[in-house]
Amino acid sequence: MGNLRKDYVSERFVIVNPPVPQKPKTKKNPYKAGNETMTNPSVLSLVQKDGMLQRLQDDEGDCVKNWSVRVFPATDPSVTIDADNSYTDHPLYSEPAYGYHYIISASPDEKETLSTLDVEQWGYVLSVVQDRLRWMYTQKGVAYVAIYGNHGKEARNKVEHPHLHMMSFSIIPPKIEEEANFSHKILNENGVYPMSQLINSETGGPRQILQTENFIAISPWAPSYDYEFWICPKKHATSFSKISQKEINDLALIIRATLGGLSNCAKDVSYNIAFHLSPEKKNSKQIHWHVEVYPQITPWSGLERGFGIFLNELSPEKVAHDLGNACRKELSLLVGIL
């Protein structure tokens, strides 16, 4: 059972989670259709039937079949609601790694990736994310829900099947707290949210990659990774759980177009995708929610790891130009299909 440890000085947390004894390894993919018994029972299985979407869940010994998206508790969770109550104090501060850890299998087909899922399927995935996000914030001890995905070995992907993680914490992650604090500082000084300023200045500029009706994808001014990009709502928005189905469909389109464009522009690239969302429970840690994608192209050196100063070989303007061309081609194909 893991615990959550805080750095001696900085606001940095680490989950120390020794591996539990595993069953003998098998080449079977536990996340694809037909292998449902290899995972924990689903808490939500999205099924298309008679032109309708049904939200079902596994019964004991009886798994839902013909699902489009499936959500189940992680087999080896990084956090757990069964965490013990052991705490230690400074300078060796730790607390229980309390929380929920779910896997969202984004497709029944193991041949798909997050970059190849069709737009409709991405819409289903995002609807399920929204559904589970709302539920998780009703649970005791949930201060924040982290949503992320990994693609490729360099991105620390353990199962080669398109999937996302949803993990709750009893704390606000330091990166989100830092973003919220700086956002409110700039808001108090300038009377405008910094992300709104960013979108106004980047729209139509040299770092714009792609835009749809409600969203814009940009290569950030100061990226930490080559080919890094962000997808942001054009209008100021703090709550992902409140976006409409139309906005979900539009978000599905731009995520699919940009991930597809990235895979075409940087062949066989590994990447991480993270949803930077505000906490849904009432507090002051509100941010302009957005999605960040971190391609794992160039390994970090001692400069990045030791000092937090990032050295990129590609300018974000060059990335936006090349990635923008690839994403626009991908978007035109997708719109043609739709």
Descriptive keywords:
338 residues; alpha+beta
How would the blueprint of this fold be written?
Blueprint: E1 3-6, E2 13-16, E3 44-49, E4 52-56, E5 67-73, E6 94-96, E7 101-105, H1 119-136, E8 144-151, E9 163-169, H2 174-190, H3 194-202, E10 208-211, E11 215-218, E12 229-233, H4 245-265, E13 271-276, E14 290-295, H5 302-307, H6 316-337
Antiparallel strand pairs: 1-2, 1-6, 3-4, 3-5, 5-7, 7-9, 8-9, 8-13, 10-11, 11-12, 12-14, 13-14
Helix pairs in contact: 1-4, 4-6
In helices, the fraction of residues equals 25-40%
Oligomer: single chain
Instruction: Report strand %.
Output: 15-25%
Largest sheet: 11 strands, antiparallel
What structural class do the secondary elements suggest? alpha+beta
Q: Which stretches of 5+ consecutive residues score pLDDT under 50?
A: none
Overall outline: globular
Distance between the termini: 46 Å
Query: What is the number of E strands?
Result: 14
Our Rg estimate from Cα atoms comes to 20 Å
Tally of alpha and pi helices = 6
Strand order of the largest sheet: 4-3-5-7-9-8-13-14-12-11-10
Order of helices and strands: EEEEEEEHEEHHEEEHEEHH
Mean pLDDT: 93
Q: What does it look like?
A:
It is a single chain. The mean pLDDT is 93. Helix content is 28%, strand content 22%. A hairpin with a 2-residue loop joins strand 3 and strand 4. It has 338 residues and is of the alpha+beta class. The protein has an eleven-stranded antiparallel beta sheet. It has a three-stranded antiparallel beta sheet with strand order 2-1-6, with no helix packed on it. The protein is built from six helices and 14 strands. The longest helix has 22 residues.
